[in-house]
């Protein structure tokens, strides 16, 4: 048997109602915050990710699915969405119409990480990007949006960690101080961190090796090195969060795994998952648009890990899985043909309708209707076709009524089309002959 690739997974029909509900809420909340949807391809030129995420990051160094197509171009399955959205903003000159854009997207990302619970090689992100706004209120608005989403989805047990990574004016002072600190602790750093120390010392904060974590507990704080402009910006973001009563933890070790960030960075952690506890992360990237060849426009955004979000939500009540509104139980060749035609008419009227094509006994067809969770069953045999009346059974109340076959689709639609609650699929009800 051919099986799934390691780290990939199927989302089966029992789970998709929850995904659909989340996506519906997400679209509603993005709408109310004035965001518009953008869809970019999952395949891009490798250079886009190398230049934006940074060549000395784990993602670019070892986690990308990169291959050469037959013309020799190096292509990569997107490991994140920001780079693609920035590329689209530049390529389609969206900024020329208006520099300010608020965009969202939902879709799969690919990273060749070591698979474990909450960490997959294909995973889904809900992604938000804002362009053209320097004001710190945009940072707090974005965090407010994220928190509104979590509240609407009833995700609790979360903490917001927030930091500022400064700007090109102040960060080099911090990097220098960090470099001297690391130089004094080389004997306790792992081989990866010794390598990172030279190329990209901020990445040492991300290391999970216990001795490195111990060393980094005493590392200098970037918040002590912010220039006045970055400090004022950060204070304004925090003040807005206070005003909206959004609790946060200032976390000077939060560096994020991507190199494009400037100033505000944040992550939402949950205590409901194991080691993979980050369900969302984001921040500002004020230089990225320009670095990728666009105008000097700031940007900021976040991404929610949908797979992890679903694992958190799995403890909540199951969303309703709807059965068909109507099942046509047809007995005999002529009734099967008539039922088949009616089914199409019901469906075009928006009534979810099913029937069984195997011409089995009424008892088996009723069992099937029950298993599917049908709300009503229309019972018609060749004999009913001759007498001109079928039977409509309400599967909840078990009431049956005779319905004349003339103009049957309109008559039955009137009865079964009412807004009564749909049955939960799989719910048991008694079936009699
Ligand atoms: P990120 O922190 O790399 O940020 O990913 C965001 C979220 O995606 C994580 O917090 C996590 O929930 C989920 N995630 C990441 N990797 C995996 C994985 N292997 N399996 C399951 N879930 C995963 C970004 O991607 C940035 N582009 C976010 C951003 C948008 N910053 C600015 N704009």
Q: What characteristics describe this protein?
A:
alpha+beta, BirA Bifunctional Protein, domain 2, Rossmann fold, five-stranded mixed β-sheet, disordered C terminus, binds histidyl-adenosine monophosphate
Topology diagram in text:
Blueprint lengths: L15 H17 L3 E2 L5 E3 H8 L4 H6 L2 E3 L5 E4 L4 H10 L2 H4 L3 E10 L11 E10 L4 H17 L5 E7 L6 H13 L7 H9 L10 H7 L11 H16 L5 E2 L11 E9 L7 E7 L3 H4 L7 E7 H8 L12 E6 L1 H16 L4 E3 L6 H11 L3 E6 H6 L1 E6 L5 E5 L3 H9 L17
Parallel strand pairs: 1-5, 7-8, 12-13, 12-14
Antiparallel strand pairs: 2-4, 3-4, 5-6, 6-11, 7-9, 9-10, 10-11, 14-15, 15-16
Helix pairs in contact: 1-6, 6-10
Describe the protein in words.
This protein has two domains: 16-170 and 226-314, BirA Bifunctional Protein, domain 2, CATH 3.30.930; 322-425, Anticodon-binding domain (Rossmann fold, 3-Layer(aba) Sandwich), CATH 3.40.50. The longest helix has 17 residues, at 16-32. The radius of gyration is 28 Å and the shape is elongated. It has helices at residues 16-32, 46-53, 58-63, 82-91, 94-97, 136-152, 171-183, 191-199, 210-216, 228-243, 288-291, 306-313, 333-348, 362-372, 382-387, 408-416, and strands at 36-37, 43-45, 66-68, 74-77, 101-110, 122-131, 158-164, 249-250, 262-270, 278-284, 299-305, 326-331, 353-355, 376-381, 389-394, 400-404. The protein has 16 helices and 16 strands. Helix 6 (136-152) runs parallel beside helix 10 (228-243). It has 433 residues and is an alpha+beta fold. Residues 428-433 have low confidence and may be disordered. The strands form three sheets. Strands 1-5-6-11-10-9-7-8 form an eight-stranded mixed sheet. Strands 13-12-14-15-16 form a five-stranded mixed sheet, sandwiched between helices. It has a three-stranded antiparallel sheet with strand order 2-4-3. Helices cover 37% and strands 21% of the residues. The protein starts with 15 loop residues before the first helix and ends in a 17-residue tail after the last helix. The protein binds histidyl-adenosine monophosphate. Residues 80-82, 111, 113, 119-120, 123, 125, 127, 129, 257-258, 278-283, 301-303, 305, 307-308 line the site of histidyl-adenosine monophosphate (HAM). Histidyl-adenosine monophosphate (HAM) binds next to strand 6, strand 10, strand 11 and helix 12.
């Amino acid at each position: 048997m051919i099986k799934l690739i390691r780290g990939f997974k199927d989302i089966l029909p029992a789970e998709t109602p929850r995904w659909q509900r989340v996506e519906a809420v997400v679209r509603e909340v993005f709408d109310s915050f004035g965001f518009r949807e953008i869809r970019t391809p999952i395949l891009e030129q490798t250079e886009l990710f190398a230049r934006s995420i940074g060549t000395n990051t784990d993602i670019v160094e070892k986690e990308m699915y990169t291959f050469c197509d037959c013309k020799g171009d190096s292509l990569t399955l997107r490991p994140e969405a920001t780079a693609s959205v920035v590329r689209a903003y530049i390529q389609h000159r969206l900024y020329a119409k208006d520099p300010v854009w608020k965009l969202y997207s939902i879709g799969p990302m690919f990273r060749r990480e070591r698979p474990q619970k909450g960490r997959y090689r294909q995973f889904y992100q809900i992604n938000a990007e804002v362009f053209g706004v320097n004001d710190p209120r945009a940072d707090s608005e974005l965090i407010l949006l994220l928190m509104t989403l979590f509240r609407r989805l009833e995700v609790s047990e979360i903490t917001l960690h927030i930091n500022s990574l400064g700007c090109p004016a102040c960060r080099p002072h911090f990097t220098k101080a960090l470099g001297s600190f690391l130089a004094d602790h080389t004997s306790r750093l792992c081989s990866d961190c010794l390598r990172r120390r030279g190329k990209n010392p901020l990445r040492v904060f991300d290391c999970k090796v216990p001795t490195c974590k111990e060393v980094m507990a005493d590392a200098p704080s970037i918040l002590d090195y912010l220039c006045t402009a970055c400090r004022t910006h950060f204070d304004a973001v925090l003040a807005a969060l206070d005003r909206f009563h959004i609790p946060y933890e200032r976390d000077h070790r939060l560096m994020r795994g991507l190199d494009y960030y400037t100033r505000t960075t944040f992550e939402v952690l949950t205590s409901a998952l194991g080691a993979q506890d980050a369900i969302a992360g984001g921040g500002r990237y004020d230089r990225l648009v320009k670095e990728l060849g666009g105008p000097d426009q700031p940007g900021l955004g976040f991404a929610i890990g949908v797979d992890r979000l679903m694992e958190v939500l799995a403890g909540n009540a199951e969303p309703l899985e709807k059965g068909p509104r109507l099942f046509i139980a047809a007995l005999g060749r002529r009734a099967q043909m008539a039922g088949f035609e009616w089914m199409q008419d019901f469906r075009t009227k928006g009534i979810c309708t099913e029937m069984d094509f195997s011409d089995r006994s009424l008892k088996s067809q009723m069992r099937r209707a029950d298993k599917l969770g049908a709300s009503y069953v229309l019972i018609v045999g060749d004999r009913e076709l001759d007498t001109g009346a079928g039977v409509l059974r309400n599967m909840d109340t078990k009431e049956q009524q005779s319905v004349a076959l003339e103009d049957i689709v309109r008559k039955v639609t009137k009865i079964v089309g009412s807004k009564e609650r749909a049955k939960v699929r799989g719910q048991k009800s008694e079936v009699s002959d």
